[in-house]
Design brief:
Layout lengths: L2 H13 L8 H5 L45 E11 L6 E6 L8 E4 L3 E9 L9 E3 L26 E7 L4 E7 L10 E7 L8 E11 L4 H8 L11 E4 L24 E5 L4 E8 L6 E5 L4 E6 L2 E8 L2 E3 L4 E7 L7 E8 L10 E8 L42 E11 L5 E5 L12 H6 L13 E3 L5 E8 L5 E5 L4 E8 L13 E3 L1 E4 L8 E8 L4 E7 L2 H5 L3 E6 L1 H5 L5 H16 L21
Parallel strand pairs: 1-4, 3-8, 9-12, 11-19, 20-23, 22-30
Antiparallel strand pairs: 1-2, 4-6, 5-7, 7-8, 9-10, 12-17, 13-16, 13-18, 14-15, 14-17, 18-19, 20-21, 23-28, 24-27, 24-29, 25-26, 25-28, 29-30
Bound molecules: 2-acetamido-2-deoxy-beta-D-glucopyranose (9 copies) and copper (II) ion (CU).
Length: 604
């Protein structure tokens, strides 16, 4: 660890008292995540129900089979503004039912999850929409939640009900896909209970890792999209939405800061096995997660169970998840630090270290752990080597994909000196008034409608290989909607055609592409079968990079897509949005906030 970083950390440690100075309601609103009062999760499915019958991790191909229970949970989400102080710095945030992080969505594999989302964002007003990260949405591509692509934004005062099959199982999250709203607080965990290939004794539930910014998200978007502006540095790093901060660092006297706001706490049991569901739900940084004195066994990456392997550090790019099993090797009275570090050379972070306390069953739960950090290799701004990962259910990659698309990522200021990202020379700008899925469903695939929509129409091809070449000097967590892709290869330089574990490659929904240059680009080679007619975004998951246009839309199985019947609520949401934008000016600032200049012409 670098000396400067160690000094920052020892400063935080000397500040930290494990008796919080602020109540949980002030730091996190209605959320109880990160407190010892947060419940552990059921080991036998939600409500003790095993909905998946005899389907196991190894006997069921989740992309073609899997259970359908016909029942499932319903949630009502009220999105509004509110003041919270996750690390002691008081900040206007976007909250779901008054909580940051948002409520846990919990369901069984094969359930139908229904979420009624009401937009009560006022002062100022904003549109919104929620995306259910990693859900395939095969039956319901219109409920994927990306404005300009699958729906119009939900107008202030309006509601929209999402209803979708829990088609995969494991750990994920949901977040706003409107502008960079999710960096302003619109995130929450999602757990889908299913079979497991390993036994464990306690499910500690979600462990959300997120870089934190003290500036309100929209001001950062204005900075990112500003003339001659650089990218923002994060101010802190949170575990389950909590951390302390050195208030002396704040210069602005109008910002209220309370020291020792409070860290997250977890309960371990000596001699028992604990499942932790790690989620990088931040805006920018790669997280390196460790637990002092403990190794971890990774059992799933994203929604894909794998042959378990043991590690001392878990690396997660934005949007990625790893489920880990941690053995309770400590004594009943011991306490340990849990840590997550934003990588100093991969990320832009002013205070990169997140801490939480782990208490064994007889430990004093206000004691400060005295354990030392596990050293780890921080050299690669990428994921673990592909040869470490073998999914439990094999899914071979074909050597002969029906079509191959090169995607070259670059970044540069445009003629107005605004820094933009480009894919094959085009920077994405969406149009909220005309969702592409709706147009494609009507047979309007005379692409490109507008080159800035970055549409790649793959027609009726049965499989697609994407070769991503990153000529930019920072890594990108690349996320595809609607699929788990096979990761055939990753590295820096020129791909030599070798496929790692071709009969059973790494498979997930986000993969980091390493930093590169025009001479030696970072690359990833991804491949998937087109079993999901729809319009599916493929984008960098760094909030500020998406704002600056690092985003494309794939049109998949256009003939089958035209046969789908969209629910009337999709059209109604556009009617309400058109009504709203007809009398309110929507700030046109980043890739996700463009609207047509003419009066809205409705499509329905
Ligand atoms: C907090 O920040 C101030 C200002 O940089 C610094 O002087 C002080 O040493 C820091 N305190 C700790 C405990 O790190
Ligand atoms: C939604 O939350 C806002 C802010 O807390 C509150 O004013 C409003 O009454 C809530 N609406 C509903 C339907 O609960
Ligand atoms: C945060 O700021 C709001 C608005 O100024 C205020 O109502 C609230 O009391 C503040 N909270 C804290 C913990 O300072
Ligand atoms: C963690 O794993 C490494 C490598 O297998 C091993 O050397 C080390 O002793 C393990 N540490 C603990 C605490 O089990
Ligand atoms: C795994 O891949 C890494 C990076 O390509 C390589 O250095 C290592 O030798 C490989 N290990 C095995 C067992 O193939
Ligand atoms: C540069 O990009 C910004 C943001 O997309 C856009 O508003 C501006 O028109 C662009 N400038 C030029 C000269 O294209
Ligand atoms: C397709 O949609 C675009 C955007 O609304 C529109 O400009 C164009 O006229 C449409 N084309 C056809 C053939 O309907
Ligand atoms: C396959 O995709 C390519 C674009 O990558 C497209 O030109 C071609 O028409 C597609 N083929 C079919 C059968 O749809
Ligand atoms: C249109 O907007 C007005 C003013 O906000 C509102 O009163 C009305 O209910 C809206 N109508 C529809 C159909 O959304
Ligand atoms: Cu990026």
């Amino acid at each position: 660890m670098a000396t400067a970083a160690s000094a920052v950390l020892s400063g935080i440690l000397s500040l930290s008292s494990l008796v919080p100075s602020l109540p949980q309601t002030v730091t996190n609103g209605a959320s109880i995540l990160g407190t010892l009062g947060a419940p552990t999760l059921s080991l036998t499915g939600l409500n003790g129900i095993i909905s998946w019958g005899s389907d196991t991790v190894s006997n069921t191909n989740p992309y073609v089979g899997g259970p359908v229970s016909g029942v499932g949970p319903t949630y009502n989400f009220n999105i509004s503004r509110g003041f919270i102080a996750p690390d002691g710095v008081n900040k206007s945030s976007l909250l779901i039912n008054g909580a940051f992080p948002g409520p846990l969505i919990e369901a069984n594999w094969g359930d139908t999850i229904t979420v009624k989302v009401c937009n009560n964002i006022y002062g100022p007003e904003e549109g919104t929409s929620l995306h259910w990260h990693g859900i395939l949405q095969k039956l319901t591509p219109w409920f994927d939640g990306v404005p300009a692509v699958q729906q119009c934004p939900i107008a202030p005062g309006a509601c929209f009900t999402y209803s979708f099959l829990a088609d995969l199982y494991g750990t994920s999250w949901y977040h706003s896909h409107y502008s960079a709203q999710y960096a302003g607080g619109l995130v929450g965990p999602m757990v889908i209970h299913g079979p497991s290939q390993v036994q464990y004794d306690y499910d500690l539930g979600p462990v959300m890792l997120s870089d934190a910014y003290h500036t309100e998200y929209f001001k950062i978007v204005e900075q990112v999209m500003g003339v001659n502006e650089g990218p923002p540095f994060s101010d802190n790093n949170l575990i389950n939405g909590k951390m302390n901060y050195n208030c002396s660092l704040i210069q602005d006297p109008t910002i209220q800061c309370t020291p020792n706001a409070g860290l997250s706490k977890f309960q371990f049991h000596s001699g028992k096995k604990h499942r932790l569901r790690l989620i990088n739900s931040g805006a920018e940084g790669i997280q390196r997660f460790t637990i002092d004195g403990h190794n971890m066994t990774i059992i799933a990456n994203d929604f894909v169970p794998i042959q378990p392997y043991t590690t001392n550090v878990v690396t997660l790019g934005i949007g990625q998840r790893s489920d880990v099993i941690v053995e309770g090797i400590g004594s009943p009275t011991s306490a340990y630090w849990m840590r997550s570090d934003l990588s100093p050379h991969c990320d832009l972070a002013n205070q990169p270290h997140a801490l939480a306390a782990i208490y064994y069953e007889n430990a004093v739960t206000t004691a400060k752990p005295t354990t030392t950090a596990t050293p780890y290799d921080d050299s690669k701004c990428g994921n673990d080597n592909l040869n470490l990962t073998t999914p439990y259910f094999p899914f071979p990659a074909t050597s002969n994909p029906a079509t191959t698309q090169d995607l070259v990522i670059t970044g540069a200021p445009n003629a107005s000196n605004i820094f933009l990202f480009y894919v094959n020379g085009e920077s994405f700008r969406g149009n909220y008034d005309h969702p592409m899925l709706v147009l494609a469903n009507q047979g309007n695939v005379s692409y490109p409608f507008d080159p800035q929509w970055n549409a790649y129409n793959f027609g009726d091809n049965s499989s697609i290989r994407l070769i991503v070449k990153n000529e930019f000097g920072a890594s990108h967590p690349m996320h595809l909607h609607g699929h788990n892709f096979n990761v055939l290869a990753e590295g820096v330089g020129t791909w030599d055609g070798t496929i790692v574990h071709q009969q059973n490659t790494q498979r997930r929904d986000v993969q980091l592409v390493q930093p590169g240059s025009p001479a030696a680009p970072g690359y990833i080679v991804l491949q998937y079968f087109t079993d999901n007619p729809g319009v599916w975004p493929f984008h960098c998951h760094i909030a500020w990079h998406v704002s600056a246009g690092l985003y494309i839309n794939t049109i998949e199985q256009e003939t089958l897509l035209q046969k789908r019947v969209l629910p009337s609520s999709v059209a109604q949401t556009c009617v309400a949005w058109a009504n709203y934008t007809g009398h309110d000016v929507v700030d046109e600032i980043d890739s996700g906030l463009k609207r047509s200049k003419e009066r809205n012409v409705l499509l329905f």
